[in-house]
Amino acid sequence: MKDIFLQRKKDMLSKIDKSFRRKWDKKIISLCKKINSLENYYTTSSCSGRVVLMFDKDKKEKDLFIRIYHDLISFEKLKEDLNEISKKGIIKFKQEPCILHVACRSLDDAQKLLDKAKLAGWKKSGIIASKNRFVVELNSTEKLEFPIIKNSQILVDDEFLRIIVKKSNENLKRSWRKVGKLSNLLN
User: Fold this and answer.
1) Do 93 and 53 touch, CB atoms closer than 8 A?
2) Angle 17-105-141 from CA coordinates, rounded to 5°
3) pLDDT beyond 80 at 159
4) CA dihedral 162, 74, 176, 93 (to 10 degrees)
5) Which of 15, 55, 70, 97 lies 20 to 30 Å (CA to CA) from residue 166?
6) Nearest-CA neighbor of 63 among 46, 78, 85, 82?
7) What does 25-43 look like in DSSP terms, one character per residue?
8) Given a cut of 50, is residue 1 above it in pLDDT?
9) What value does the mean pLDDT of the chain take?
């Protein structure tokens, strides 16, 4: 009998990357490769964490993101980019943690991965189960989100921007450490 899980895994891992960047984030690629090398798991999506400047919309739309940073940010670059944005309306600053979706062969496999993720600090995580499929959604908790521009006016001063940069970079580093911890816990 054909192994449906292995066929899905093969199909998923052979697909063209449909992400915005068309490639895996450097900070999470080794964890994804490790997971994908395990017989009972494969990744379906991942992000190592990022900072974005985006329109304040309820739905994901085309051209929603104005700037996306997948590495540490600097005050100078953030200030420069904020000054370049001359859009009307509200622009949000958003720092997002790592997120990873992993398909698992069984509920038991999903629970084992979830338990290891929780040990590594991925607190906001869970199992999504459907008829014949189990996906573990792993989320880290480090996050910032607030309006930063309204009608082309920056809503905060430079001192606050420096605090934002420092906190965002600390959050990203903490999130990346969790990626490493989880990788170390996987056999």
Assistant:
1) yes
2) 65
3) yes
4) 60
5) 55
6) 85
7) -TTTHHHHHHHHHSTTEEE
8) no
9) 90
DSSP calls for 81-103: HHHH---SSEEEEEEE--EEEEE
Nearest of 21, 85, 19, 18 to residue 53 by alpha carbon: 85
Q: Is 70 exceeded by the pLDDT of residue 22?
A: no
Q: Which of 112, 111, 114 is nearest to 100 (CA)?
A: 114
CA distance 187 to 122: 18
Record the pTM. 0.87
The Cβ of residue 145 has, within 10 Å, a number of other Cβ atoms equal to: 13
Task: Please say if the pLDDT value at position 168 is more than 70.
Answer: yes
Name the residue among 184, 177, 154, 183 with its Cα closest to residue 43. 183
Do residues 46 and 12 make contact, with C-beta atoms less than 8 angstroms apart?
A: no
Selection from 119, 98, 116, 110 nearest residue 50 by Cα: 98
pLDDT digits (tens, 9 = 90+) for 48-79: 999 999 998 877 777 788 999 999 999 999 99
Rounded CA-CA distance 162/11 in Å is 45
pLDDT of residue 20: 54
- Domains defined for the chain, CATH in brackets: 4-185 (3.30.1960.10)
